[in-house]
Amino acid sequence: MNTPLSWIKAYVPELECTEQEYMDAMTLSGTKVEGYEKFDADLDKIIVGKIEKIEKHPDADKLVVCQVAVDEEGTTIQIVTGAPNVKEGQKVPVVLDGGRVAGGHDGKKTPGGIRIKKGKLRGVESNGMMCSIEELGSSRDYYPDAAEDGIYILSDNPEYKEAPVGSDAIELLGLRDANFEYEITSNRVDCFGVLGIAREAAATFRKPFVPPVVTESGNAEKTEDYISVDIEATDLCRRYVARVVKNIKLAPSPEWMQRRLAASGIRPINNIVDITNYVMEEYAQPMHAYDLDTIAGHKIVVKRAQDGETFQTLDGQERELDSSVLMICDGEKAVGLAGIMGGENSKITDDVTTMLFEAACFDGTNIRLSGKKLGMRTDAQAKFEKGLDPNTAMEAMNRACQLIEELGAGEVIGGCVDVYPEKREATTVSYDVDKINALLGIQVSEEEMCGYWDLVELTPDRENHCVHVPTWRQDILCMADLAEEVARFYGYDRIPTTLPRGEATMGGLSWQTTIQNIARNVVEQFGFSEGMTYSFESPRVFEKLLLPEDSPLRRCIEIANPLGVDYSIMRTSPLNGILTSLATNYNHRNKDVRLYELANIYLPKSLPLTELPEERMQLTLGMYGRGDFFDMKGCVEAVFEKLGIKGVVSWQPDSGCPYLHPGRKADIRIGDTVVGYLGEIHPEVADNYDIGTKVYVAVLDMEELANQASFDVKYTGVAKFPAVTRDISLVMKKSVLAGEVEEVIRKNGGKLLEAYKLFDIYEGENVAADEKSLAYSIRFRASDRTLEEKDVTAVMNKILTKLESLGVTLRS
Q1: Burial of 23 (0-12, 13-18, 19+ CB in 10 A)
Q2: Rounded to the nearest 10 degrees, how much is the dihedral formed by the CA atoms of 299, 305, 308, 309?
Q3: Which of 45, 436, 639, 714 shows the greatest Cβ crowding within 10 Å of its Cβ?
């Protein structure tokens, strides 16, 4: 939003400050100023001069030599000019020797201005320059009476005709001014109008705010006799105010109005259009004017458009509508897009005699969506989008009608048609002085707080400790908003720095995160590096992993808007990501690679989805190069040990994973619960991923590990009594697993069993071809005595007896 400072001063007449002071103070009080442009920044030594005499240039047909008076005593200087519109007796702006102008006659400004020095033109001395409006840094938008090609003639304007010769022409033309650009937040709808900015300026500088005195105008007739209004879409139109003006006299609007509009970025057109735009900028309330003679049945209906309906707007474009777009219609047809633009069929022409003025309050969200849908953007739309105060509509209407009468633009019909289904009332917000002071970290009395609220017309009720909030302050909803008003007028720069107060809370990691971090640390100590892969995969992964058609892993979640088929499902197995990463490393000729990933898989509870899927965190290990099945198994065992797994861990070779090598795979169980699997990748799967070497993987379900983990460790002290060790060598069929042997040892060792260890595996000479030999070292110890031979022999006999039931015998 842009406004000239002179427009603000019109409502804050006692405001005296420099442009920089205004910018800094307004920004600190909450109305952010982005910057400003001084109209006279590059203007210097420019006065009112009077042309006393004009002679032809002796050596140039298009130049003339002027004698120009520059003071009341009649002192003249000689100026050579080529302007075609100069005449004797005219008063013109003159820049003296050493002065500056903003730019050239073409209207282009020069940074720092152009310095004017006396010199000679075609041999004739010239001691200054007479200025066009463009050379003064302005344009015909601001000064419509300026010549299109020539000097600006002051005396042609009655406002400047009596200006004393030698007086300041910059001041006379109103160029001792600056245009300010504001950044207004969406919740401060009132500040999208000049009156709102002026109110803030008055409060910031503690000066009286003097808004225009608006009185209801109109003759003895009644607007109801000219027009009727019906709002069908009451959810999209909160208020509609209509007034009628007859005997319209179209003419240019006064210069002061044109300059203010031009400074705001609006091109002046005529008095009627300019008044509607002027009031829109002043009150932040858009208005629209229709030719009443084009309104069928002299009736206005506010309703939704029909699907597929077309409408031609004022810009000549044909728009296709739907039922979400709000329309202004007459008795037969649509005449305007509500809040956006009027229609070609009801526009104001030079032949207009009677006009209908509209000031309404439309739903901001609907206006924004409609404009976006139609590809339109207008000044009125930009204001409606913010959500206007419906109570401002009548004030703006009365102001517009007042200006019409003051400018002689027409005769205002008395009364109005005001359809206001549900009136918005002022609200009340309670306050607590102590809480506001505690929130801001200051000490301000109630009287001082109430004074700040009074500055911006928030009426405090000291007895009931509340503030009555006018409807145009839609941002004041709670006590924190009142505290903000206190802070910005007390001065943010005056608020001392204080430490935050409150009670400290103990932070900590969740149990699941703790388990994951421990597992991460262990595998990293084993040389694994962390990787991260996509949760989105291709359905082709199932074939690469050799999953059968009836595999539950094929029950996956399809993504509604995938980037492509390669990212169209949520993964149900973590293997594809880790194998793809290993393949990339292998094809880059990295010889030894160990990678791990902690990531979720996504298992649907039902298909199609009726609820969120189950997300299970998996620790996936993958490696090739140095290392084998048993290295991977050792890493997994280290994870279990560090997590304090109390249950019995077993390795079951009958794993049903088709992507693992048939003879080198195992399910990992803790008790009866499967917590993962490990093994060598099936050679065919390795080929599918272009990996030409053996690959080993392990997958652990972190949720199950979190359930089994325990850090309840008790100190037992150093053993006081010696241990007894027995080494045994056992012969058994190759089909008997070492885990089965160890389970027998564990279950039958009793309380004396302290540890056991497999230290040798033998196959070959002196052992049958279908048999193998396992050698174990078993350690016994009692906590309360030294063991005797008979104690250890009894336990060993029990173990050997149970082993015989498995077909396991001592090796002779």
Answers
A1: buried
A2: 20
A3: 639
* Residue count of the chain: 812
Lateral strand order in the sheet of 299-304: 228-231, 299-304, 326-329, 334-337, 341-342
Q: How far apart are CA 613 and CA 607, in angstroms?
A: 10
Q: Which residue has the tokens 């609907």?
A: 366
Position of tokens 């272009």? 690
DSSP 671: T
Quickly list DSSP for 706-768. HHH-----------SS--EEEEEEEEEETTS-HHHHHHHHHHHSGGGEEEEEEEEEE-STTS-
Which residue type, as a one-letter code, is found at position 264? S
Q: What distance in Å separates the CA atoms of residue 277 and residue 271, rounded to the nearest whole number?
A: 10
Between CA 693 and CA 243 the distance in angstroms is 88
Distance of CA 68 to the CA centre of its chain: 60
Query: Cα separation of 134 and 115, whole Å?
Result: 15
Given this model, what pLDDT does residue 195 score? 95
pLDDT tens track for 526-557? 999 999 999 999 999 999 999 999 999 999 99
Instruction: Give the model's pLDDT for residue 105.
Output: 64
> Strands of 459-461's sheet, edge to edge?
427-430, 466-469, 459-461
CA atoms of 202 and 29, how far apart (whole Å): 11
Q: How far apart are the C-alpha atoms of 448 and 434, rounded to whole Å?
A: 13
204 CA to centre of own chain? 30
Give residue for tokens 């564990």. 746
> What are 633-659's pLDDT values in tens digits?
999 999 999 999 888 888 888 778 999
Structure tokens at 219: 């003759």
Determine the Cα–Cα distance for residues 579 and 697; give it in Å rounded to an integer: 9
Q: Scan for tokens 């003679």, then name that residue.
A: 293
Q: If you search the block for the tokens 């010769």, which residue do you land on?
A: 165
The DSSP letter of residue 567 is: G
